[in-house]
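TL;DR need structure tokens for one chain.
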Amino acid sequence: MEIRWLQDFLAVAETGNFTRAAALRNTSQAAFSRRIQQLESWFGVPLIDRSILPTQLTREGEQFRVMASRLLAEILDARADLQGMPDQRPDHLRIGLPFALATARFPAWWSEWGRDLRLTAALTVGNVHDLGIGLLSGATELMICFHAAQQPIHPEPERVDAIEIETDFLRPFISPALLRREGYALPGEKQTPLPLLMYSSGVYFSRLVDLIIENAGGLPNGHRVIENDMADVLRDMAIAGHGIAWLTESTVAAGPADSLVPIGGARWSMPLSVMAFRDRANPNAAVARLWSLLSRKRAGPAQTRSRPNLVAARPRPGPSP
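>> reply
TL;DR here they are.
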């Protein structure tokens, strides 16, 4: 068995798509498919169900997914130990978090954590499901993700500690130019359906947006223009004027200033917590030091950031840009 077989398998398990997984692994789809077949041949059982779309794992594949994550982490740790690589130092930790937080919030956090604690870190970016598996398998030592009360996340609470880092809001945003040109308002009108930029099915934010819309009374006058896993993609599509996207304020703040405005009232939004999770049995001193810092910050004044108005003022009609 080759290490890259494990990496290939985890890539297709995460993306659910051979083409995207091959691109992530920087190889051709033909070569990627051959390596997956070699892995299946080595085990003697199919790991991928090729009879349906989108791509899904077989029962054996789901079972191996957890093993593969753990095996890969142990192999890489063993290599690092033998080579004396930096992740064996007492100031090093492995952090897993979603792409939206990695781009919008982690640089600011690290300015403080790296300065005050003199830490180094290895980052793993992924979806909530895989990040949770990574934490429980030991592939990562700290998991940071969004958390909503209506869709709680707490992997094995008898084993895992949780702490709130800060708060955020998920709400619909639109470009000022599109709002000015079309005069859109939620929940929309039958004559002018709202163009929606939505998360792909199965993504954590997709469930949250569905809950928001359901609690607000539905959105019958809307049509999906784009679906994507990544908040940054939907943000950039909204900035380009292609529709309305539910985004966190931190994701919007990380983009160009004044490029998006919120639309709709408070009933179309949802408060979020940004949570950190750790395995309380983890012996890494770096994790304990960071956890102590996060605990002290939580005990102090609430960590919040300035937020845009909940309701965007509807621009007066004017010439189209």
